[in-house]
């Protein structure tokens, strides 16, 4: 019960931010692995329906829900619809997120700070809280994937709000993993995913640090999917994320600033950021 999930046959998979990019790629993987129900959440109804059409007719039943995950009321209402329509998800992939790349004092209070924390942090907690009690009671092998970021492990200029949202995700997600283990709910495994920059358009203009090129989305989603099925507690990609985290932990701050800024180029990686248009 507690090992690798070999097959998703008969399972229900829920993915947030599923209308495009890596969210849609996860949906394709769920269909490929013969999930019975693939539940797609996104704020963009037009793209959501296009994704459903693309995924349909391949054996899985596709369910779409237009939802603004920055709003708790919308999460509660949509979660209730999912429970009534398909039941409790066996696999929950908290993928939705936004980024605002600018100095902290340039952030707008509502559209930048509040929105980033609501979508990148609070939404993951609220959505998981909606489904987790039934996942616990169900006793089926289940998985929760929380998409964080390498920015949640290392501070970076022009990422103060984004980094803080991902730091919070990492702390919450790994604590949740430990709580489930301690309470004996070992059929549920939590994977915290901490990637560097990925070529999705979300980080358009960002430059990868030394030895850390922007990663290809297809390869990344395949690796995350495997980690999810294996129940890997934390996945950092690429390997330089682990190296940077280790160096940050042992070097004095002044020395690390030199290494990160002048050697690896981490502190300059967002200088030409434009983001998705």
UniProtKB/TrEMBL annotation:
Q: Which domain of life is it from?
A: Bacteria
Q: Name one GO molecular function term.
A: oxidoreductase activity, acting on the CH-OH group of donors, NAD or NADP as acceptor
- Keyword check for DNA-binding: no
Q: Which family does it belong to?
A: Belongs to the short-chain dehydrogenases/reductases (SDR) family.
Q: What is the protein name for this chain?
A: 3-oxoacyl-ACP reductase
Q: Known InterPro entries for this protein?
A: NAD(P)-bd_dom_sf, Sc_DH/Rdtase_CS, SDR_fam
Q: Which UniProt keywords apply?
A: Oxidoreductase
- Taxonomic path: Bacteria, Bacillati, Actinomycetota, Actinomycetes, Micrococcales
Q: Kindly give the Pfam families that the UniProt entry links to this protein.
A: adh_short
């Amino acid at each position: 019960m507690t090992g690798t999930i070999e097959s998703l046959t008969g399972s229900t998979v829920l993915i947030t931010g599923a209308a495009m990019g890596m969210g849609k790629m996860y949906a394709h993987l769920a269909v490929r692995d013969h999930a019975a129900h693939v539940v797609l959440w996104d704020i963009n109804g037009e793209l959501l329906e296009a994704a459903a059409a693309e995924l349909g007719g391949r054996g899985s039943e596709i369910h779409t829900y237009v939802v603004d995950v920055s709003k708790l009321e919308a999460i509660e209402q949509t979660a209730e619809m999912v429970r009534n329509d398909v039941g409790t998800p066996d696999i929950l992939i908290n993928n939705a997120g936004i980024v605002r790349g600018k100095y902290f004092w340039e952030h707008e209070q509502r559209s930048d700070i509040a929105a980033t924390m609501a979508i990148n942090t609070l939404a993951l907690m609220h959505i998981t809280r909606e489904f987790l009690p039934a996942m616990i009671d169900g006793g089926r092998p289940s998985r929760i994937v929380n998409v964080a970021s390498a920015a949640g492990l290392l501070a970076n200029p022009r990422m103060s709000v984004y980094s803080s949202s991902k730091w919070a995700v990492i702390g919450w997600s790994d604590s949740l993993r430990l709580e489930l283990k301690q309470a004996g709910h070992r059929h549920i495994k939590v994977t915290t995913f901490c990637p560097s920059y990925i070529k999705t358009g979300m980080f358009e203009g960002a430059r990868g640090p030394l030895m850390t090129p922007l990663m290809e989305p297809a390869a990344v989603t395949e690796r995350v999917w495997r980690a999810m099925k294996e129940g890997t507690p934390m996945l950092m990609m690429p390997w330089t994320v682990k190296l940077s985290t280790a160096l940050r932990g042992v070097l004095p701050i002044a020395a690390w600033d030199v290494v990160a800024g002048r050697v690896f180029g981490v502190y300059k990686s967002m200088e030409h950021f434009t983001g998705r248009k």
